[in-house]
């Protein structure tokens, strides 16, 4: 589960991590009142569950109440990577001497937490990692030995943090690690952690993801999960009993039966997609592939305006291919298909199934490779117009 920055800041405060004062607003006039209370300059920040808000124009500084009103008005309602901004965070703006990155996540290969730090934080951190990896420090945590400030300072110095900043950043990382363990976080990130001209070290952004499998252990998170405004299409999908996860920058709707098959399909669409066709979602309709499930799945996938084509990859096992095909035809009755839907049937009776689908509005293919090629070519044609 991801949470919005304002909630992550609350958790930071509870753990004693220094965060500037902030409040949330949902209208421009709200934002002006809050800003007047906090005192200028303030920074107004879109509250959406994606990164890169700064680059997208979702982070703006306001120096007086007129600016607070107009800039909040610009940000509220804005679309950032397909998500509509409903809420802004207003924080006391800080003077920045330098931006750093610190974070803790799970390294699945090593089965350990890993601390990641960089003295070159800010909105270009991905580029830093790619082009100047020597500016990134990493340290894996042995859970039996725990985390110790001296080790952290060592890594921070090594990555190029100035000594007095390193000491403070190490203190903050100790608190973050406690929070990670207490609350089963899968990721916590401060980007940027900033040094002010007066030598203070503060977190001015806050990102936390929780391990969904641990949420049941934390009643307050469970409540949050239920109340947190997540993606409206995900809410709709879950209410229909579908396992659906929406991705932010995809354009190919993916439907399959079985989580492994769906994930493999996503990988293959991406690999074959030449950077143009990208999976827009994960949707697993589960074992039986009944007509009602397929219909629900198609409807949900097509709710995403970014979806420009759909790939259904069904393996006929217990349910035979001809039954799946009949189910699909039933499923598309009464559905308006504005984008091409490619279906790859495999397994028992796939030939019979394919025959049933020929001449319908669905495009049956035999292999996943063929399906991906059809989709990629279609998307390339579309992107050329
Ligand atoms: P993100 O782009 O979604 O990660 O949003 P951030 O909260 O990290 O903000 C992006 C950038 O805006 C930061 O890297 C800062 O350079 C700038 N910024 C954010 N808050 C402040 C602030 O209080 N003062 C100043 N001067 N800049 C800020
Ligand atoms: Mn940030």
Count of helical regions: 13
- What ligands can be seen in this structure? guanosine-5'-diphosphate, manganese (II) ion
Q: End-to-end span in angstroms?
A: 38 Å
Could you state the CATH homologous superfamily of the largest domain? Succinyl-CoA synthetase domains
Average the pLDDT over all residues and give the rounded result: 93
Report a brief summary of the structure.
With 385 residues, the chain is α+β, with helices and mostly antiparallel strands.
Q: How would you characterize the overall build of this protein?
A:
- The chain is α+β, with helices and mostly antiparallel strands and 385 residues long.
- Strands 7, 8, 9, 10, 11 and 12 form a 6-stranded antiparallel β-sheet that branches. The protein has a 4-stranded antiparallel β-sheet with strand order 1-6-2-3, with helices on one face. It has a 4-stranded parallel β-sheet with strand order 14-16-17-18, sandwiched between helices.
- Strand 10 and strand 11 form a beta hairpin.
- The relative contact order is 0.09.
- The model has no long low-confidence stretch (mean pLDDT 93).
- The structure holds guanosine-5'-diphosphate (GDP) and manganese (II) ion.
- The site of guanosine-5'-diphosphate (GDP) has 17 residues, from strand 2 and strand 10.
């Amino acid at each position: 589960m991801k949470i919005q920055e304002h909630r992550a800041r609350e958790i930071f405060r509870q753990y004693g991590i220094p965060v500037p004062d902030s409040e949330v607003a949902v209208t421009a006039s709200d934002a002006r009142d809050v800003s007047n209370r906090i005192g200028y300059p303030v920074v107004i920040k879109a509250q959406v569950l994606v990164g890169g808000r700064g680059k997208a124009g979702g982070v703006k500084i306001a120096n007086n109440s007129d600016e607070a009103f107009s800039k909040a008005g610009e940000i509220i309602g804005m679309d950032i990577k397909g998500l509509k901004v409903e809420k802004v965070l207003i924080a006391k703006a800080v003077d920045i001497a330098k931006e750093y990155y610190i974070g803790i996540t799970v390294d699945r290969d090593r089965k350990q937490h890993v601390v990641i730090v960089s003295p070159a934080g800010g909105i270009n951190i991905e580029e830093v990692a790619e082009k100047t990896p020597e500016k990134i420090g990493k340290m894996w945590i042995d859970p039996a030995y725990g985390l110790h400030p001296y080790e952290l300072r060592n890594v921070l110095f090594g990555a190029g943090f100035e000594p007095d900043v390193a000491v403070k950043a190490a203190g903050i990382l100790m608190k973050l690690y406690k929070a990670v363990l207490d609350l089963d976080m899968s990721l916590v990130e401060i980007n940027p952690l900033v040094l002010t001209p007066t030598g203070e070290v503060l977190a001015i952004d806050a990102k936390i993801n929780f391990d969904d499998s641990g949420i049941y252990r934390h009643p307050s998170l469970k409540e949050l999960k239920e109340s947190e405004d997540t993606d409206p299409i995900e809410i709709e999908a879950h209410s229909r009993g579908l396992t659906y996860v929406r991705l932010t920058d995809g354009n190919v709707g993916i439907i399959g039966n079985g989580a492994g098959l769906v994930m493999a399909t996503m990988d293959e669409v991406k690999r074959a997609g030449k950077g143009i066709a990208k999976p827009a979602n994960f949707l697993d309709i589960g074992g039986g592939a009944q007509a009602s499930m397929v219909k629900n799945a198609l409807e949900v996938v097509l709710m995403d305006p970014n979806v420009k084509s759909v790939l259904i990859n069904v393996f006929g096992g217990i349910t035979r291919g001809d039954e799946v095909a009949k189910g699909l035809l039933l499923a598309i009755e009464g559905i308006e298909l504005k984008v091409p839907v490619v279906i790859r049937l495999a397994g028992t009776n796939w030939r019979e199934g394919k025959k049933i689908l020929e001449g319908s509005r669905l495009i049956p293919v035999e292999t996943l490779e063929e399906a991906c090629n059809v989709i990629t070519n279609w998307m390339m044609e579309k992107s050329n117009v």
